[in-house]
Amino acid sequence: MGLGEEGLFLDLKAGGAAAEGIEKLFPPPSYFVAYVDGAGIPDKAALMPALAAAFRFPSYFGKNWDALLDCLRSLPGEIPAKGYVLAVRNSGSFLSSSPKDLEDFADVAGEARVFLLEKFKAPFTVALL
Question: How many domains does the chain have?
Answer without folding.
Answer: 1
